[in-house]
Amino acid sequence: MDFSPKTFSVADYVVFALMLSVSTAIGIFYVIKDRKKQNIEEYLLGGRSMSAYPVAFSLSVGFMSAVLVLGTPSEVYRFGTMYSWTLLGYVLMTIVVAEIYIPTFYNMQLSSVYEYLEKRFNRLIRIEGTLLYLLQTVLYVGIVIYAPALALNAVTGFDLWGAILSTAAVCILYSTLGGLKAVIWTDAFQAIIMLIGFISIIIRGSVVMGGFENIWRACEEGGRIEFLKFDTDPRIRHTVWSITFGSGFLFMALYGVNQGQVQRFLSCKSVHEAKKAIFLNLIGLELLTGFALLCGTIVYAYYQYCDPLSYGVVERPDQLLPYLVLDIFQNYPGMPGLFIACVYSGSLSTVSTAITAMASVTVEDFLKPVFNWSDKTYTWISRGMIVFYGGICILFAYLASTLGQVLQAAISVLGLVGGPLLGLYTLGVLFPFVNSLGAFFGANAGLAAAIWVFIGSRNYPPSPEFLDQLSYSTENCPGFENATTLSPLATTSTVTETTSYTPPEANLYALSYQLYTVFGFCWTVVVGVLASLLTCGWRDRKTVDPRLIYPFFDHWIFKCLPESFRKCMTCGVNRRSLDEKNSADFNLEDPVMLKKGERTKL
Hints:
The protein is mainly α.
């Protein structure tokens, strides 16, 4: 292996620039194509005419893409293959989202998913949900912008803030020009680039290492291959339970109740297409994550005898995969450029998804209920909001540098707010007796508990016994004596300044970052249910519009149960009134009502 300085060739810059140019061209194409259909629904929801295939591509790369490309391989390199259990979490998430959340939201013909909160509870809960979403998204997008820019800066010398600004500028440009259609079709193009990048690394890495069996053997010898850790201690970083349920709940929060993803479901031409899109998205997620895991094994096998972190040629784990690409493709001009295009495809898709969704909720949740402006005016305001939120996300990219490894930071930030938000919607969709007071107290209790644990974990990090940090070798590093050590990052991530007092709640602070979403969700649901019962929410359960409640016990799985029992479990909600409501005329004062003759598919 060669540790000499590496740089981009002219061919690499050409490939990278070509990818950015195509993304921008898609936005320009939709400006021209849809110039005569400039209304707010066309701009933010694609005219509700999208098919499942491009939406599925967009869903696959819309959130975890940049984090996935850089964070997952370094996770395998440092902690082994336990993270692969997230693939099972995706399956569980997909089934729940397809069966519960998509039908409920789609058949209400929402533009913003937070409209549901006002219909189910009140406007205050809707505003709180929207603000929580905006906070979560801005923080997360800061990580997404910063991470690939840092990787590019470290391995090619490309200016860090130049990379950050170019990422944001391209996203803002094509999102502003073409709206949601441009974002979805650009995401589809970027998903293909990501797949090509991963496959190229796997093929070339296998050739360099003399076959994938040699890669697997090296990982086994280095202790990286592990799948069966069934420990039930929630403080252990990765176990079967923490990863399966943690990733499942996290992705339920992302795909079930997050505006960025729900906006894509709502753009589909029918609820059937929306469900089809989420299952096709599952295939995309499994492929992308599986390829990222395989790339992690290649990184370890290639550097098994000389850890780049210990040797000092890279500063952060998230720079390992870019450095490997420059190593194994140094005689193939253009291939490093393709990989960096792959990384930036992930970043672009995530940022464009986020800023478009934030513009949508700002218009739908804050402006439309107050101002009676024309569609053309709202379309121009939406464009302005996309530019505004793009600028805000650039500012928050600086904050991302203080949050540590990109995968853990991303999951932590998403979980802190995603868990309480998921719990809030679950209270509304599955618990007819939960009232607005219960929802308010539940959401705030869940958010406070999650933030408390996160801040505590920064001040009192978990001890090394819970992290399962694996060892690295430097025996073949030039100028190093034979050694097997922990990465220098193990010290910085597990040891803090000596304190004279450790609080009794330190065990709670050691909770695995994978479980932040579950923790916030459980607090929200438990407190919400108890507060509703204490404030007599059960008295109003029969007055709740049945369209706002998912008919859980009407599902075919429960048809074998006695009807009297199933009726009891619906808490008295009159499901039979649905037929009458579905035949009513569409009422602008009540967007829950559907057009005359239209039947809900709940």
